[in-house]
Amino acid sequence: LGRHSGDHRTQGFDYNGVHFGQDNLNVFAGLCAVDTPEHVEQMLKALQENGQVCTRMGAYKPRTSPYAFQGHGKACLPYVFELAGKYGMRVIAMEILHESHMDEIREALEKTGHPTGVMLQIGTRNTQNFELLKAVGRQTEFPVLLKRGFGITLEESLNAAEYLASEGNTKVVFGLRGMKTNLGDPHRNFVDFAQVPTVKRLTRMPVCIDPSHSVGNRDAGPDGIPEVFQVTAEGVVAGANMILVDFHPDPATALVDGPQALLLKELPWFLEDV
Ligand code: PEP
């Protein structure tokens, strides 16, 4: 990924008609967690109406508590992929927690027959799950979004990305999603988007920002602008190449991370701002 070769030329990749590189910007707005087919459809319809071809849809959710909703998993894939095809989605970012999830996704995608693709997301809790990284790195069918680990150094997270590349998959986007600190931050995580140019200087990976999981709420400042918008702007100014952002048709009923989900009516405003 550029770290050990001394070669810092931009290395992008194309996947399913979408270009990912250090030289462009893709927005992946969508549901943190798939809950109902109706919400998936409302979300995707809004995205299509706003000219979007990428989205995020969480089927497998890594939860802090075993009693919290764990995601519908494999069961929701048929309707998620069917609706994604119906609304013209080209790439869905979807987190996986186990290598078997890749087979489940592949099988469900094949059954729908739509030209929708999946970018496999490895979340912050699995950044150093080396066996998962190796398994995902061994396949080259799906590109990967690797989130930084929230409690490890940047260097350690970049090495985690090398696990993917060293096994053969260099279609990797690196995600910044905020860091945990013990300073009682007002945000869910300490926003780390100042490191966008650092990652771009050190590697050839396109860099994603996740303002939703960094900020953790959709509160607005005194100017009426949600802080998620403000930190997104910081990340874009810093050179971000991808934005992963939570929206929900009815955040009050969302099963995961409702407080940070932006409203569908805010989607055109968000995209315009970006
Ligand atoms: C997510 O994007 O749904 C998620 C759980 O993110 P993170 O791994 O950054 O917490």
TrEMBL record:
Residues 17-271 form the DAHP synthetase I/KDSA domain. Keywords: Transferase. This is 3-deoxy-7-phosphoheptulonate synthase. It comes from Acidithiobacillus sulfurivorans.
